[in-house]
């Protein structure tokens, strides 16, 4: 196999692998960003509503009548956020692992193709060399 074709095959496989990795990472970051924005929007709305409810309370009796969620954070929301974050991160990791595996497979395929092409070129060159040698021997016999 020609070293030049090996290098080209390896470079092609690496570029394809890095492109797939970059796409998988961007997809994951896009999903995480969307999740972050959603959580921030919900937090802002909930906080505003809690502040408005708290501002309307004038004394201890009003404070006691406020819903519990007005006075404390929502642990269920945090749990849901962490679950979704974990799902996205896991999917992102799986996609990147798949991209790396596919990159290794493509590298192997490109190297095999380059080896096959180099073998075919070598066989073609080897097939023309005996003909040329036979022609030169025939020409040498005629000259003598």
Cα radius of gyration in angstroms:
34 Å
Q: What is the string of helix and strand elements? A: HHHH
Number of helices: 4
Quantity of strands, as a count: 0
**What share of the residues does DSSP label as strand, in percent?**
under 5%
Q: How would you summarize the topology of this molecule?
A:
Elements: H1 3-56, H2 60-65, H3 68-71, H4 75-143
Overview in brief:
Helices cover 92% and strands 0% of the residues. The chain has 144 residues and is mainly alpha-helical. The longest helix is centred in the C-terminal third of the chain and has 69 residues.
Task: Describe what this molecule looks like in 3D.
It is a single chain. The chain has 144 residues and is mainly alpha-helical. It is rod-shaped, with a radius of gyration of 34 Å.
List keywords for this structure.
144 residues; single chain
């Amino acid at each position: 196999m020609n070293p030049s074709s090996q290098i080209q095959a390896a470079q092609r496989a690496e570029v394809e692998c890095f492109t797939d990795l970059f796409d998988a990472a961007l997809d994951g970051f896009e999903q995480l960003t969307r999740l972050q924005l959603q959580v921030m929007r919900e937090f802002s709305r909930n906080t505003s509503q809690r502040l408005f409810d708290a501002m309307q309370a004038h004394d201890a009796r009003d404070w006691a009548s406020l819903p519990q969620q007005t006075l404390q954070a929502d642990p269920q929301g945090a749990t849901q956020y962490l679950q979704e974050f974990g799902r996205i991160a896991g999917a992102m990791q799986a996609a990147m692992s798949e991209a790396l595996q596919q990159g290794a497979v493509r590298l192997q395929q490109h190297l095999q193709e380059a080896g096959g092409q180099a073998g075919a070129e070598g066989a073609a060159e080897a097939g023309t060399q005996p003909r040329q040698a036979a022609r030169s021997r025939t020409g040498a016999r005629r000259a003598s």
